[in-house]
Here is the input.
Amino acid sequence: MDLRGTISPDRPLLVLAIAEEAAYLDPELPVLLTGMGKVNAAAALATTLARSPLPSVVVNLGTAGALHAGWTGTHEVGAVLQHDLDTEFIRRLTGQTVGAPLTFGDGPVLATGDQFIADDEVRAALARRAQLVDMEGYAVASTARRFGVPVRLVKHVSDEAGAGADLTWKESVDGCARLLAEWVREQL
Here is the structure.
């Protein structure tokens, strides 16, 4: 976990997984680097929100894989689900709803899980439920909501998830970071 800048109630807190995604952000802005994956994202954000004044909004920025051909660009997410948690099975087993999808409004559906999607069969299965895939979005959204802080998820497509996505991501992360920083300058 790495926190840059000062969090205050009149400013957004930018939350990203890794430094490569945050490379071009204004150093004056509060930026939290959580590390990759849901556990790292939830733990880092919860720790930060518990120890600091609450920000005006948590903005989760980062790269995402496209689950459908032709998806490019920067997208503000409309809903997020956990693709590696069987919410329906748990509901049938226990009668409790755990990990239900979170909604924000218009925009694509983001599937979050602790797996980098570099398999075409997994991609096809996820594409029936979502347009984008990442490893932190759901955890950030859920944690921010538990603290009563508004949240926005903004993802730039780095690759078409599936075979070869790992190589494409490595080649595109710097360009994605530039475009995410541009989005921040224009939107926040």
In short: The longest strand covers residues 57-66.
